[in-house]
Structures are given as C-alpha cells and as structure tokens.
Design goal:
single chain, alpha+beta, 3 helices
Length: 187
C-alpha cells in the first residue's frame, strides 16, 4: 500500500511543481511581452514622427517654391534699375515713350515697403493707354495711385502716372530656390 500512496504523493508533487513552474514561466513571458509591447509602441511613435517630419519637409519645400514665386512680384531694393528698364521696355513694345521722372522709397506700411514711381508716357492715345495697362497689369505688386491724361499737339498724348510697387529687402529670398534679380520685361 505504500507504493500507491508514494506514487500519488510523487504525482501530486510533480503536478504542483509543474503548476508552479508554469506560473513562473507565464510571469516571465508576460513581463517579456510587456517589454516587447512597449518597444513596439516606441517604434510606432518614432515611425509616426518620421512620417510627420517627412510630410513637413515636403510641405516646406513646396512652400519655398511658392515663396520664390511670391517674391518675384516684389521689386528688390537692388533691382530698381532693372525695373525702370522693364517700364521703358513696356513703353517701347507699346510704341510709346516712358520716362521715369522720380523714384522714392516709401516707409513700411503693414510690414511691407514700397517704391513710388512718377513716370511720363507719350505717344498716340492707343499706345499710351496700352502702355498704362501693360504697366498696371505687370506681374508685380503694382498699384496706380494717380493718372492724368492730356493731349498735346496733333495726335500726341501724354500721361503722368504715379505708381506704387511693393519692394522686398535684398535678403528676402527663398531658402531653397534662387530668386531672379532681373524683373520680367514681357507685357
């Protein structure tokens, strides 16, 4: 009778030790799973952060291109002479004569500075008006502040125009693109 009791005690001891070993192994695996889950969440966070950084870089490069396009609408402080040349070229293309009488730099209004030009345009009525239109609708931040039109001798007309053109400081260029220093001359 001893053998069955001994066998039962040994089986019970083995069963208890198996349950205890299983419990300890389960605790170890659970701890490792928690560490792995934490590492996975860190990886996911870093991946998401990298994707946001990549999207931000793409947006910034797109904005830099847009910034360069917008900067082309302003006359840089060092590009006044080239802008005057473009005004005269617009007059020649419209068969009129454009003379720049004065140029002055306005104080900054709402954070933007501007140049004020006083110009005279002479030619036929059609040529004068086409030149005024070409200047007014030039690809710049231009606004006509005054316009007076008069007829001289025969078919010679003259217009006195004051216009304001937005300007930008010399160092206001897009960081990833080059800004053209010569303004557009096509009407």
């Amino acid at each position: 009778m001893r053998t069955p009791i001994i066998h039962a005690v040994i089986a019970l001891a083995l069963g208890v030790s198996a349950v205890v070993a299983y419990g300890m192994w389960y605790a170890v695996v659970k701890a490792k799973s928690a560490v792995v889950a934490d590492l996975q969440s860190q990886i996911d966070a870093k991946r998401e952060s990298a994707m946001r950084i990549s999207a931000a870089r793409a947006a910034l490069s797109e904005i830099a291109g847009d910034e360069a396009v917008v900067q082309d609408y302003f006359v840089p402080e060092t590009g006044v002479v080239a802008f005057i040349d473009s005004l005269e070229a617009r007059g020649r293309s419209g068969n009129a004569t454009v003379s720049v009488l004065s140029v002055s730099k306005d104080a900054a209004v709402k954070g933007r500075s501007a140049f004020t030009f006083s110009i005279s345009i002479t030619g036929t009525f059609d040529a004068v008006m086409r030149t005024v239109g070409a200047i007014e609708y030039a690809p710049y931040a231009v606004s006509l502040t005054s316009l007076s039109l008069g007829q001289g001798e025969a078919d010679v007309w003259h217009a006195s125009v004051k216009l304001s053109v937005g300007s930008s400081p010399t160092n206001a260029t897009a960081s990833t693109t080059n800004q053209k220093s010569v303004p557009k001359t096509t009407p």
